[in-house]
């Protein structure tokens, strides 16, 4: 199983990488398995000394303290590709802390931006971090496409890889070798499927007002600094630049093998704690790409998984639709 997963990733990466056109234009893309060093591929966005490089610039620590959070972004923008990082999250009491690893073009397209997110929401001591993914296209911020998950491991103990595969017709989010979410472009989704070049971002910031139990638990700076560690940052896509022409990846080749699909389904059956496709309060008519089956019985009208409720007790809803369990 592990081997077929790897083979799939290699194929997907090669398909997404546009290596030949990149070479032809002199635009340097990393060979598979050779992550860019920070200085070559990224630039600090904010947080002055709260961003620190380690291991020859191959590992990046970003931290949050009472002065500031921190963040960085890729120097280039990419149209499709494969983007990943190994991330280790801060431990202990992390309520209110948000770590984000995402693609966006919000700085270029203010009203019609695209975005693909991994967001990690901290928690009170002894409660696990929660992960959410989101997809926005062409400024569709009114239609959140959030999903939230539990994890089968403690993300503060070790590095784990979080990856986004983005092609013309398909987006796949991965945690380690497991695909956790697939978004297939449907005609009705139209421009709400991200389709303009995006940059890669990583940030840590204070989400006290909403991240944990709708803002009930705020960041406690007694425990600062909160340090998120990033390693093996990988960008394999069509870099967009003045001299770069890159054909889109041959994306029909990137179909998920059956073994991967069943791994994804098993993950989702167990760890999906909220899905917008099940949220009938927010979307009385599910968004067009949702295909909801018998598994919908496992979810409340709020989109929250019933099993999660039983396991974790009270949940709190915020205005933005983000809620959390503590
Ligand atoms: C994207 O959104 C803008 C502004 O709402 C709209 O004018 C435009 O037609 C949209 N683009 C596509 C391809 O639908």
UniProtKB/TrEMBL annotation:
Residues 1-24 form the signal peptide. Contains at least one intrachain disulfide bond essential for its enzymatic activity. Its main location: secreted. InterPro entries: Beta-glucanase-like, Beta-glucanase/XTH, ConA-like_dom_sf, XET_C, XTH. The active site is at residues 115, 119. Keywords: Apoplast, Cell wall, Cell wall biogenesis/degradation, Disulfide bond, Glycosidase, Hydrolase, Secreted, Signal, Transferase. The keyword Thylakoid does not apply. It holds the Pfam family XET_C. GO terms for biological process: cell wall biogenesis; cell wall organization; xyloglucan metabolic process. Residues 29-230 form the GH16 domain. GO terms for molecular function: hydrolase activity, hydrolyzing O-glycosyl compounds; xyloglucan:xyloglucosyl transferase activity. It is found in: Secreted, Cell wall; Secreted, Extracellular space, Apoplast. GO terms for cellular component: apoplast. It is an enzyme of class 2 (transferase). Its EC number is 2.4.1.207. Belongs to the glycosyl hydrolase 16 family. Catalyzes xyloglucan endohydrolysis (XEH) and/or endotransglycosylation (XET). Cleaves and religates xyloglucan polymers, an essential constituent of the primary cell wall, and thereby participates in cell wall construction of growing tissues. This is Xyloglucan endotransglucosylase/hydrolase. It comes from Paspalum notatum var. saurae. The lineage of its organism: Eukaryota, Viridiplantae, Streptophyta, Embryophyta, Tracheophyta.
């Amino acid at each position: 199983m592990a081997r077929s997963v790897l083979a799939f990733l290699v194929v997907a990466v090669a398909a997404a990488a546009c290596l030949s056109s990149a070479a032809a234009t002199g635009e340097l893309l990393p060979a598979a398995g050779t992550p860019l060093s920070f200085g070559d591929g990224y630039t600090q966005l904010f947080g002055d000394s709260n961003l620190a490089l380690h291991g020859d610039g191959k590992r990046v620590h970003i931290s949050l303290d009472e002065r500031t959070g921190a963040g960085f972004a890729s120097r280039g923008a990419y149209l499709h590709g494969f983007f990943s990082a190994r991330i280790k999250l801060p431990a202990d009491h992390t309520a209110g802390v948000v770590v984000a690893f995402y693609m966006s073009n919000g700085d270029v397209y203010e009203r019609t931006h695209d975005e693909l997110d991994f967001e990690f929401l901290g928690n009170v001591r002894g409660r696990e971090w929660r992960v959410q993914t989101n997809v926005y296209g062409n400024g569709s911020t009114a239609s959140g496409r959030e999903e939230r998950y539990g994890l089968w491991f403690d993300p503060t103990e070790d590095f784990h890889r979080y990856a986004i595969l983005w092609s013309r017709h398909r987006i796949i989010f991965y945690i380690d070798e497991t695909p956790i979410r697939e978004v297939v472009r449907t005609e009705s989704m139209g421009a709400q499927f991200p389709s303009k070049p995006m940059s890669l971002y990583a940030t840590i910031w204070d989400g006290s007002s909403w991240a944990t139990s709708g803002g009930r638990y705020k960041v406690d700076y007694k425990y600062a600094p909160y340090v998120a560690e990033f390693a093996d940052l990988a960008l394999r896509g069509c870099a967009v630049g003045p001299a770069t022409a890159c054909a889109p990846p041959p994306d029909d080749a990137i179909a998920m093998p059956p073994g991967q699909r069943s791994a994804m389904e098993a993950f989702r059956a167990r760890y999906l704690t909220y899905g917008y496709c099940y949220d009938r309060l927010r979307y009385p008519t599910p968004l067009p790409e949702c295909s909801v089956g018998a598994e919908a019985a496992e979810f409340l009208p709020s989109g929250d998984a019933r099993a999660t409720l039983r396991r974790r007790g009270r949940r709190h809803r915020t205005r933005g639709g983000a809620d959390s369990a503590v």
